[in-house]
Hints:
Elements: E1 7-12, H1 16-27, E2 33-39, H2 43-53, E3 56-58, H3 61-65, E4 72-75, H4 82-91, E5 95-98, H5 106-119, E6 123-125, H6 133-144, E7 150-158, H7 176-191, E8 198-204, E9 215-221, E10 227-233, E11 243-247, E12 250-254, E13 258-263, E14 292-297, H8 305-319, H9 327-344
Parallel strand pairs: 1-2, 1-4, 2-3, 4-5, 5-6, 7-10
Antiparallel strand pairs: 7-11, 8-9, 9-10, 11-12, 12-13, 13-14
Amino acid sequence: MNNNEPIQVGVVGLGRSGWNIHIRTFRNMTDKFRVVAVCDINEARLEEAKTSLGCKTYARYEDFLGDQEIELVVVATPTYLHSPYSIMALKSRKKVVCEKPMATTTKDADEMIRVSKETGSLLTVFQNRRYGKDHIKVKEVIASGKLGRIVQIRMTMNSFGRRWDWQTLKEFGGGSLNNNGIHLLDRALQLMSEKEPEVFCHLDRALTLGDADDHVKIILKAPGEPLVDIELTSACAYPIESWLVMGTCGTLIGTPSELKWKYIKPEELSPRAVDKEPTPDRSYNREDLHWYEETWKEEDSLITQEMAFYTDLYRTIREGAPLAVKPEEVRKRIAIIEKCHKMNNL
């Protein structure tokens, strides 16, 4: 295979993710990826893909995997099929991008990793939100030290909405925790230096018509790391900021498109000493602080977080760069989700 040739892609599942995210991304990266085949049980969607992309179409997954032109399989099926379909592709010696969540149990995740190693076939997971510009900027601000020691990080994904599709049903691997909670957990563990955290979780069914969760609260704590508070709900008509990072020298707050942070400089502060005597004015201690404030706004860019994910993957496949999203790393997120479900019997 010529290293300059586009990677030949086959996409299984032509729903919101497969069509609107993955295939849309490949359309913008034709120098690196070419969709040569798709697979779905919906005949109308297959016809649409054939007309729009000029690619081969398959109704049976086994026939799709037999296509020797396919180099990389994107598994964009409903959640409960992620693990078995990825394993089948790996055994067919295909490279695999598995949609999130990687699996619904650690047992299935471990089997995916085992088969990948056994066959030598590449396996990665579509954790595209770690490429979000807001997440990257938050990491940059924290690493700068301007906020001091980070005490707590709150991440929210709040809205008010009633759903009744397949993602509200446990039999299909649905629920807000599996669907979008995996993104927040992925970001959280990156900000916690990948340490194994203690986990508290509360799950509820608020507005969903199905039997899976749509209200999630998770608290993570690991030695030497900030406490992380994750909230994901469909029952909030007044959404709050997506980010709140509290440190000993300042605070960051904001949304996916706009952040601001204010901080003090410790070297400019007057020295203090504990004083056991009554305060002169019967009030609390106070001092004049000089605040520094910075802001960030997302700039229009032709490079989306999905394109950034696939750019990294292209470099891995064609140029031998290290794999950016390792399945062993994502397995840690699945373990936390599994704990959360067991805690709540959901």
